[in-house]
Amino acid sequence: MSVQFGSKALFPRIFLFLAVLLGTPAALHAQPPIGPQPDLRLLIDISGSMKESDPDNLRGPALELIVRLLPDGARAGVWIFGEDVQQIVPHQVVDARWRERALEAVARIDNSGQRTNIPAALAAATYDIGSMDPTYRTSVVLLTDGKVDLSASPMANATAARDLLATTAPKLGATGIPVHTIALSEEADWTFLRALANSTTGIAEKARTAAQLTEIFVQSLEMVAPTARVPIVGNIFLIDETVDEFTALVFLQEPGAEVTLTSPDGVEYRPEQNADGVDWFQSSQFALVTVTAPERGAWTLVAPEGARSRVSVISDLKLEVDPLPNSLPAGRVTELGIRLRDGDGVIARPELLQLFTLSVQITGPEDYSELIDVTGRYPVPATGEYRVSIPAFDRGGRYQLLVQLRGETLQRELPLYIEVIAEEAAPAISTRPPMVPEQDLQRPALTLAVLALLAVAVALWVYRRRRKRKMAIWQRRFDASRGAADETVVAGLSATADEDEGKGKSP
């Protein structure tokens, strides 16, 4: 991947060509926007155990970042829950007023809850499940550090969790509402959270530390509302003529790290400066800068070593991708729809589409990698929509599909994520006993022999001790009975006395 800085004169000619073609009705395959708008519903655990799981209350900055990144026109709402559920941000269309109220509500995220009533939280967030607006694609993000805990009775809690997985989750999945779960503690019921995500075609994530929460939140947002980016090569990214606004996000490794942004004409922007059209926000976990009406050309983003960065754009020319299921079983082939769109519709003119190249870079577990050359493999579609076959994945795990668009001086990337669920292999049944190598039997046999000898020795020792004790008891009884017999003879019967008595009598 390389950034091209040449051919500046060619770019205006391309867009002049576009303008001429767009002036004719046949230039575009005009149609209303394809695909629903995102509808994000956030559920945030405020139980007392969060004092240990999130001691610095990083849930607040993570929510604040999501509020700033949500696109205008989307819908969103925020609920907090412990034993009870409270809606702290109304479920409404995202606009300036909504963002203001949402940023004010960040302060209400604390650790005051007594329990973890996940069923009630899901019920509150899906209050309109029977009458949802089909023009929106609804997703739920659940953040918790515990398990279903709505009663002092373990049996009642287990029953509630089982009912949620058996009844509520399948209903949400059938309605097309994925629940993305985030476990913020090793104490969280990972088995339950993963089952809840899988049964609703959501994705389960585990934050090993609270500091990872911000990045996981952003990835959750990307799953709900995929946003086109421009690639960063080194620390340079290219802004083209179609970009109206860009937002650079830098995840910081250390609080207070310095981040700067330099425009193509050499003007340097810092968080402490106030510049027209440049809006900074920085926390201990990330730096966020939005530039409106940016200068065209190569921008430089300077961040600490090891920091991860991304630059998303709002542009007249949009890279649009059909939403894929967030999770699917291993071995299933799926299809990806890719289009280019401007404000009037999908671009279908072959002369325009041939100015760009499209590809899909797939990465996954155990260094899995595959590149699909879309424009090289598929002919230019008459409708302007490429239908790309995505291969079946045999191995379970998280896969990223990075859709890449390249023009002469225009570059876009759009990330998608899929969780592949691999079924556990059924145990094989065989009528033949397994062949075990002889050397593998020697150690177990020797161990058994030693244990047997020890058992025999212990048994003999116990037997002899018991026999000795019985002999002692018998001896005491014998001695006692013998002494009693001698006393009786002395007191009563005497042969000598009888003889003397007989001698004293006359015949």
* Termini Cα gap: 149 Å
User: Uncertain regions: pLDDT < 50 for 5+ in a row?
Assistant: 1-34, 425-441, 487-507
According to CATH, the homologous superfamily of the largest domain is von Willebrand factor, type A domain
* CATH level 3 topology of the largest domain: Rossmann fold
Number of strands: 26
Number of domains: 3
Q: What is the 3D form?
A: elongated
Structural account:
- The chain folds into three domains: 37-224, von Willebrand factor, type A domain (Rossmann fold), CATH 3.40.50; 238-314, Immunoglobulin-like (Sandwich), CATH 2.60.40; 317-424, Immunoglobulins (Immunoglobulin-like, Sandwich), CATH 2.60.40.
- 32% of the residues lie in helices and 30% in strands.
- The chain has twelve helices and 26 strands.
- The longest helix has 54 residues, at 438-491.
- Mean pLDDT is 82; it is low at 1-34, 425-441 and 487-507.
Keywords summarizing the entry:
elongated, single chain, 26 strands, 507 residues, Immunoglobulin-like, 3 domains, Rossmann fold, alpha+beta, six-stranded mixed beta sheet
